[in-house]
Amino acid sequence: MAPTSDSARSAIPASTAPAPAEDIAECLGGEVHLAYARRPATGLVTVAAGFTPEAARARARTRAAALEVLHMLPGGFPQPRMGGERDLYLSDFMPDPPAEGHERVAGLGLLSGERYLLPAEVVWMGERDCGVEPTAVGVVGDEDDGVSGAIADLLAHDMVTRWWSSPRMPLVRVSAHLASLIPESAAAAVPALGLRVSAFVLPASGFQIAVVGVSGEGTTIATAAARTVKEAVGEAFLRALAARAQPWSTLSTADSLRRLTVWHREVDYLAYLEWSALDADLGSLDPAEAGDGSPGWADIACRRFGHEPIVVGLDMLGRPVKVLCPGAACYRTVPPGTTLPCPVP
Questions:
Q1: In angstroms, rounded to a whole number, what is the distance separating the alpha carbons of residues 259 and 265?
Q2: What is the DSSP string of 117-174?
Q3: Segments in the chain forming alpha helices (H)
């Protein structure tokens, strides 16, 4: 079901279009593939993007399965106390937390192997009247990257959220190098379809964070972390395209309102990003190639947040579905109240 019109609207399937149980769409002239997956138990629709149909389909399936589990928590997965678990509370995840419920979710420390019991409010993805905004940050959405990719997601969102509220460090503008950061044919299709891609990098210690906006009749902005600039920009680009095709009715209320704000105020958002950006030599951004002794993603997160990441795996096969970490700026009581809320949920 590839689009045939050369308009910007048809370049990315409309976010209100119905999604079948599982299907593949092409965008950017067939250079990027969008996979739609609907889970039968909850009716959730998940959209994932990839540079091949196989990659997009695998991502959509993995993420849809994880989100279905998280939406069914905690009632469908009782968490009996086995003894020896360490309790964490909302105060470990956010300042000035709201009143906490009694439901707990089991998790496992990725470095220590310690067992934890977590407040369901920071794990569950459904809507509830609890004052905690549900977040998909840290959801395992790729079979290949698995838990490591979910930790990188935590790091990216934490750093961009903090940067957005206080942009003391300039972003590095890499939009001019797009053809060397994503498949050249995909980069060439962007202007031909009336779209624009703005790409920026926020360097970190041992890895890179990309912030990518895809604009034209509304803007979606996404972020990703990876070892190299190319990997980070490519992943953020795919996430931004998937966000354009995700039906807003499937998002949480807070995320839908944020998406709506970003969509309609694309000029403001891109101006905000450009305001602090500097041009730099692309070759100077990536650190030396990591060796066997370089820290893993779990170690990097522990060093940054002061706590080890915790994995939650509650489906029938025991597969991980989400990674959380106290200290990460990914857990909120209410949507940001600033004029331009941070565009990444």
A1: 10
A2: EEEGGGT--S--SSS-B---TTB---TTTHHHHHHHHHHHHHHHHHHHH---SPPEE-
A3: 8-11, 53-72, 90-93, 146-165, 178-181, 184-192, 229-245, 253-264, 266-276, 297-305
pLDDT by residue for the chain (345 residues), tens digit each? 333 333 333 344 444 443 445 688 888 888 999 999 988 777 788 999 999 999 999 999 999 999 988 888 766 555 656 678 899 999 999 998 988 888 889 899 999 999 999 999 999 887 777 788 889 999 999 888 899 999 999 999 999 999 999 998 899 999 999 999 999 999 999 998 899 999 999 988 889 999 999 999 899 999 999 999 999 999 999 999 999 999 888 887 888 888 899 999 999 999 999 988 998 887 777 765 555 567 899 999 999 999 999 999 855 457 899 999 999 999 988 666 667 889 998
Backbone angles phi, psi at 48, to 5 degrees: -135, 150
Q: Which residues contact 165 (CB under 8 A, 6 or more apart)?
A: 336, 338, 342
Phi/psi for 311 (5° steps) reads -105, 140
Q: Which helix (H) or strand (E) holds 73?
A: none
Nearest CA among 204, 155, 95 for reference residue 305: 155
Using an 8 Å Cβ cutoff, are 297 and 148 in contact? yes
Nearest residue to 149 (alpha-carbon basis) of 323, 329, 318: 323
C-alpha 315/C-alpha 142 separation (Å) is 16
Residue listed under structure tokens 């470095």: 111
Inter-residue contact 167 to 150 (CB < 8 Å) = no
Element (H, E) at 75: none
Q: Is the dihedral of CA 225, 229, 233, 234 positive or negative?
A: negative
Cα–Cα distance for residue pair 144/339, rounded to 1 Å: 38
Cβ atoms of residues 109 and 308 within 8 Å: yes
Contacts of 88 (CB under 8 A, 6+ apart): 116, 117, 118, 119, 310, 326
